[in-house]
Every structure is written in structure tokens, then in C-alpha cells.
Amino acid sequence: MNVTDRLRSALASLAERDSLRTIRPRPKGVISLAGNDYLGAGADTALREAFFESPLSRFGLASGSSALLFGESEAHEGLREVLRRLYGRESLLFPSGWQLNTGFIAALAAAFGKDVFFLADRLVHASMIDGLLAAKRHGAGFLRFPHNDCSALERLLERVAPEHEIVVILTESVFSMDGDRADLAKFVALKKRWKNVLLALDDAHGLGISGANGRGPAEEAGVEDDVDFRILTFGKAAASSGAALLTDPDWLSLVTNYARPLIFTTAESPLQAAWTSFVLSQIPNWSDRRARLRALEAKVLETLGSDALAHGTPILPWILGDNARTLAAAKRLEESGFLVSAVRPPTVPEGTSRLRISLASSLTDDEIDAFCLALTRLKTEFAL
Ligand SMILES: *Cc1c(COP(=O)(O)O)cnc(C)c1O
Fold first, then answer.
1. C-alpha span between 54 and 50 (Å, rounded)
2. Of the residues 94, 102, 127, which should be mutated to test ligand 1's pocket, given the most ligand atoms within 8 Å of the CB?
3. Is 57 exposed, middle or buried (CB count within 10 Å of its CB: 0-12, 13-18, 19+)?
């Protein structure tokens, strides 16, 4: 087969499985339940105006170089200061959560080789999986435990903790495709039984959504000090981009020295860091937005008629099973004026294709009522 035919057949085989993905700009005039702007900060034009009237908007767009080659400036320092104030910890900034997760996991492996071992929840984000695959090249091993299964994790720990100098558990506060949470109190109690077991928590979807100060499920569970590596990403509720690793200074120093996705990339834009600081500073004040999310969640759950999805998070997966059905349902919703993502393998396991309904506190009563009506019609049409 020549190159062109080979390429076309690869694309055709994706299309046959209803797995061909395309990028298209967000259509105008539809209401989005497909984003991660949980607190409506991205849609908040008054907030944006307030930022551009504040001294924080004086920063430039270009960082100019890698963080290790003076790419950071006063804006990045400012963001770390906000994080210190809100979280009481030191941090290392990355241009994205993807780079943080792949870089941080591989960095530990580059430093410790086979002496470090990772135990990851089966459903952790692809960026952690890619970090684990990179870690393998450095001789570090890993195993995945069944989703949220602390007893399975316990059995694995009993085996691997005595055999390795360092063991790192990888999980998420809120799982991005299922909207459920890790039982953080249980994970913390478990890891505390071994001095050499550390807990890394990806807080990408937890940031902002719950807790008295909006620090998410870890704040709610009162376990923040027991999380050894806290991963914040700013592309979701913080309506920005970039990410921060929160841990002790010696660990930060180690990651700074070994994380290739940090060393060999341009530092994020100073203006972006300033905007992140601005939004993060508001998040503690947004209890009303968090309460609004809970109310919207209750409404959609009632419509779907499923309490199994009640997790106190803005992510509601409606599992339809096969790809074609999921795509058809998403298309029908879009025709009714609502954008919902159809999530298919390999993002989720085979046979669990779903509509990922993602709530934002900025949805109005009229909008959510209309959406619930569209869901009800869809249930009838698809005999669900
Ligand atoms: C979005 C996401 C990431 C990646 O963050 P980006 O900043 O978008 O690269 C990492 N982990 C989880 C759980 C995520 O949902």
C-alpha cells in the first residue's frame, strides 16, 4: 500500500468505529454543558473587566524562555504567593497540567529508578498514564488498582511497600469522566501506615467546586496536610491555563531538576499567571456559586432519575454504551440548543461511551429547565 492509501485506511478504520475525532470551534447560539468552567468564571465578563482594570493586567504576554532560564517574572512570583496564602504550601508552576503530570512522575523515576514504585487508580487521567509509561523507561514500576478500591490498594501496598524505598499512590479528587470522588480520608489513613508511602492527588476537577474556601474535596475531608503531592490545574474552574505542583521545597527542587516537560518548554505567559492569581483569589468568596452548582446537580439528577450519580460534583456521566448511540444523542441535544460532549474510548473504557454533562454555576434557571426538558425528550426517544 502506498503512503496515501495507508493514511486513508487508518482514518477510515477510525470512522468505521465511530471514533474519528475532529476539532470544531464551539458553535454560536448554543448553551454549553461541555466545558469545565464550573464556577462560571470564564463566562463572567464583569470579572474579566475588573481584571483589566486592576494592576495585575500590566503584565506582558511573553515569558521569553523556560522557567529555568529566567522565563519567570513578578507575575509568576505573585501566583506562587497567592497559592502560599490559599494553600499554605510552596509550589512549582507548569504551563499545563499535562506537562505537570507527565513531568513530575517521570522526574521521580529519573531520580530514583527502580527504587520508586507507583500505584495508580485505574481511571486516572491520561497525563498520569503517560508519566507512568515514561517512568517505566527509567526502570520504575507501576500497577493500577481497581477504581476507588481501597482494599485492593491495601493488598498491593502490603506487597510493594516493603520492597521499594518510595511508593507513590496516584489518584484524583474528582474523576473527570465519571464525576465521582476518591474517599480521601480512607486513602490517607491507609498510606499513613507506611512511612515510605506518599499520596499524589490530581485536583484538576476538585479545585473550586466544594469546601468552605473552595479548595475542594481535600479541604472538605480535612486531609490537605496529608496529601504529599497536590496537583492543581487552572484550565477548569480557575478559567485560565497552567498548573501547579504543591509539595515540600526539597521535592520541588528534585522535580525542577528532572522534569523534562518543565525544563524544555517556555514558561507560561506572565499575563496568564496574573489572571490565574486574580481568579484564584476570588474562589474562596464564591460559596454562592458552589451552592448553585449543588442545586443544578440535584435538578439534573432528578431528570435522569438516577441517584447513583449523586457525588456533589458538577460532572454527570450519562452512560449510553456504544459510540453510535452516544453520538446520536449528543447530536440530538445540539439540535435542541445544548452542547454536551460525547466521550468515547480510548478516553473511557470500551462499551462505556457516554454523554458527559458538565454543569456551570452560570447556567440560568431558564437554561437548566430547558436542558432538563431536552433530556426528558431524549430519554423517551432513546427508550432509556
Ligand atoms: C485537564 C486535566 C489535566 C490536564 O490539565 P491541562 O492543564 O488541561 O493540561 C490533568 N488531570 C486531570 C484530571 C484533568 O482533568
1. 6
2. 127
3. middle
Given phi > 0 = left and psi -120 to 50 = alpha, else beta, which region is 343? beta
- Strands (E) across 41-110 are located at 91-94
Nearest residue by C-alpha to atom 4 in ligand 1: 97
**Residue 242 Cα to ligand 1 middle (Å):** 9
Q: Please name which of 181, 183, 157, 176 lies closest in space to residue 168, comparing C-alpha atoms.
A: 157
What pLDDT shows up at residue 308?
75
The CA 204 to ligand 1 mean position distance, Å, reads 6
Which pTM was predicted?
Answer: 0.96
Q: Judge contact between 317 and 34, C-beta under 8 A.
A: no
| C-alpha 182 to ligand 1 mean position (Å) | 17
Amino acid in the structure at residue 333 = L
Could you tell me if the CB of 269 is within 6 A of ligand 1?
no
Cα distances from 149 to residues 65, 155, 240, 378, in angstroms, run: 43, 10, 33, 34
C-alpha cell at 373: 426538558
Answer yes or no: is pLDDT of 62 > 90: yes
| Cβ–Cβ under 8 Å, residues 271 and 60 | yes
Handedness of CA 39, 44, 50, 51 (dihedral sign): positive
Cα–Cα distances in Å, from 210 out to 176, 198, 216, 307?
15, 24, 4, 19
Query: Residue 163's CB: how many other CB atoms inside 10 A?
Result: 11
Q: Which of 236, 175, 204, 217 is nearest to 361 (CA)?
A: 236
DSSP one-letter string for 286-297: -HHHHHHHHHHH
Bridge partners, 341 (sequence order): 356
- Among 100, 92, 98, residue whose Cα is nearest residue 248: 92
Each residue of 147-202: pLDDT tens digit? 999 999 999 999 999 999 999 999 999 999 999 999 999 999 999 999 999 999 99
> Does any ligand 1 atom lie closer than 6 A to the CB of residue 268?
no
CA of 128 to the centre of ligand 1 (A): 9
- Is residue 205 lining ligand 1, measured as CB closer than 6 Å? yes
Q: Which protein residue has the closest C-alpha to ligand 1 atom 10? A: 97
